[in-house]
Amino acid sequence: MAQIELKQVEKLFGEKYAVKPMDLTINNGEFVCLLGPSGCGKTTTLRMISGLETASGGTILLDGENVTWHHPSDRDIAFVFQLYALYPHMTVRDNIAFPLQAEGMNKDDIDTRVSEVVDILRIGHMLKYKPGKLSGGDQQRVALARALVRRPKAFLMDEPLGALDAELRETMRAEIKALHIAQNATTVYVTHDQVEAMALSDRIVVMSAAEVQQVGTPAEVYYDPANLFVAGFIGSPGMNVLKGQLDGDVVRFLGNNNTLPLPARYRIPLLTTLDADKNVIVGFRPEAGTINADGSMQGEVYAVDMHGAYKLLHVNLGDVPDTHEPTIVHLRTDRMASNPMGSQLRFTVDPAMMRFFDPKSGKAILPSQTDQTDRQPVEVLSTTAEGQA
User: How far apart are CA 374 and CA 352, in angstroms?
Assistant: First the structure.
C-alpha cells in the first residue's frame, strides 16, 4: 500500500475555486474520509488524486513519487464509483477479471486472483450472472472485487453506498471496514454521510466551501470541533450553540435568565480572545446536558423525539432579543424519562463537555494548556490562498 501526500493542491474552474490550496497526508494503510456537503470539493479532490481531474496547482505524491501529471492508468490506484460502472454484457467473473486481462496477465494467475477476492467478498455463487440480475448491494460487492483484484497501492471510493437503501448501507459499511482491516489498504473515501464517516474512518477531513475545515479522528471532530461549521455539521443533531456574554465566573445568555458556570481552564483564553463586549458562543453536545431540578439552565419542552434507546428533547430557552425567534437546544435523555411537550425543566451542562467559539471568526477558543485532561488534540489544516468560496 502507499502514502498519499497533497501539497498545496488546488482546483479552479475559471476564477472560482472548486478546491482551495490544501495540504494533506494520508498514511500507509490509513482509512481517511473526505466529508462535507454537496459542492464542497471532496469529489474533486478524490478525482485529482486519481488523475481523472487535473490539478490547477500543487503537487500530488504517491509513495514519494510525484504523480501530479501522470495518467490515471500510471498511478496504480483503484477507483470505486457510486454507480458501480460494471460492464452489463459481461458476467460477474469477467467483470472482476477484466482489469487483469487488460494488463495481459496469464489465465492461471487471473483465476487465482479472482478466486481470492471472490472468497473475501463471498460472491462465488453469482459468478455466472450478469450485473442486471444482481441487487444493488451485490453489484457494489462486484465493483469492490474488481478494484481489489488489481492489488493497487491505494483505493479511492466516491460515495460507493449512496445508491443503496438503509439496511444495505449498514451491511456494506461493515463489509468495507472489515475488508480494509484485512487488507490494510490505504483508502480515501468520499461521503456526505457523517454516520458513515464516523463509523469507517481512522481520520476525517471535514470540508466546506472548497476548503478543509478540520482534520482529525472521529472523536476529535465530534468533541473538539475546530469551528462552528464543524460543530453544526458533525452530530445528529449538531452541537448546541448559544450566544452569550461572559460575566465573571459565568456565561449569561441573552433573552433569558439562564447561566452556565465558566470552566476555569477557559478563563484566560476567553479574556485574551474576546472583544470588550465579552460576547461569546458556547457549544455543547446533546448528551452533555443532564436534567436536574437545581440546574442553572431552564426552558420549556418544545418537542420530543423517541429514538428507541433514548429520547431527544427539544427545549426552548426563550426568544432571542430583536428577532424574537426561539432558542432551541437538544438534550439526550433516558428513554423512560417523562418530559411531555409544554412541560418546564431545568438542566445542567457537564463543564468538561463545554466548548467556546469566537463570535466573529467562528473558530474554537482552546482552553489553557495547564488543564486539558478532558480534551484530545485537534489537527487543523489551514489554506493560504485567497479566493472565492
Answer: 6
pLDDT score recorded for residue 386 = 35
**pTM of the predicted model as reported, rounded to 2 decimal places:** 0.86
User: Domain 237-365 adopts which CATH fold?
Assistant: OB fold (Dihydrolipoamide Acetyltransferase, E2P) (2.40.50)
Over residues 313-336, the pLDDT tens digits come to 999 998 776 667 888 999 999 999
Say if residue 349's pLDDT is above 80. yes
Q: Which three cell numbers stand for residue 304?
A: 420530543
Identity of residue 258: N
What SS3 state is found at 138? helix
**Cβ distance 357 to 281 under 8 Å?**
yes
The CATH superfamily assigned to 4-228 is P-loop containing nucleotide triphosphate hydrolases (3.40.50.300)
Order of strands across the sheet that contains 211-216: 77-80, 154-158, 186-191, 31-35, 203-208, 211-216
Question: Hey, how many other C-beta atoms are within 10 angstroms of the C-beta on 248?
Answer: 9
Which residues, in sequence order, are bridge partners of residue 188?
32, 156
The counts of H helices and E strands in the chain are 9, 21
Give the separation between CA 228 and CA 231, rounded to whole angstroms. 5
